Model the fold of this input.
Amino acid sequence: MSHYSQLSPEQRRAKLYSIFSCVVICLIAFTFLFPLYWIITGSFKTKTEILSSTPVWVPSEWVMTNYENLMSKRTAPLFDFSLFGYTITGPTIPGAIRWLLNTVVMSVSSMLLTCLTAAMAGYALAKKRFYGRTILFSLIVCAMALPKQVILIPLVREMSALNLYDTIWSVIIPIVGWPFGVFLLKQFAEGIPTEMVEACRIDGASEWRTFTDVMFPMIKPGVGACAIFTFINSWNDYFMQLIMLMSTKELTISVGIATMQGENSTDFGILMAGSALASVPIIIVFLIFQKYFTKGITMGAVKG
Done:
């Protein structure tokens, strides 16, 4: 207390503000982390504890029954594809594992393709001068505000025409042309000095060589930010997955878990176990790309 009384009024205000900020941050963190805690602990509770009218904060007995039921409810082949008129099918595995693999393949493929196409488009819009460039970029910005539900019917008809409906590609291809990815990487490319591009042109480098050897390494933080944004967006796009995927073997983890809900009753233990399983990959990806995620928000917001 004596130390506090010796502080100047400005230092006192700064210390109080610091304490207040820490309290607010802790409350916000608790608000976001509590649902995850409840899902993870709930997946190890018995059915009686889950349905108890009095909240059970910590399971009295940690059981694996919910995970066992999740793995035994549905089955699906590990893989299946057609080759020269023959259908090759893998061994039968729990449906939840197949759904998780489908979701990982979908999200990783969407992430890689989106980062590649968005990086090239962002480079062209930022450093190339061509007729209609401003109009094209304006359309991309406007498309960011366009709800996906508006273009859902054309997308379904397009995927059906390409014989891709009810395949994993029907949810990958619509994500590849993500306007936000183009916008984000254009903002990063704007910060690269134009003189470097001109120097490459003077040295005789091709456009592809200029992009791969000069531009792409310099916008790598933006690509990392775009990667995590795309991965999260693809993983959480429940609505598109629900419309595009029908058969059990093609479902993603979120849609597959939803199909386990009964019409008149719901096994919350299975839902919590599936949700806990589905949260693991997305948490790992976020921890790996966390610095790019933060940098993407700050840099993409201040550039214009």
Residues 300-304 have pLDDT under 50 and may be disordered. DSSP finds 16 helices and four strands in the chain. The first strand starts at residue 75 and ends at 77.
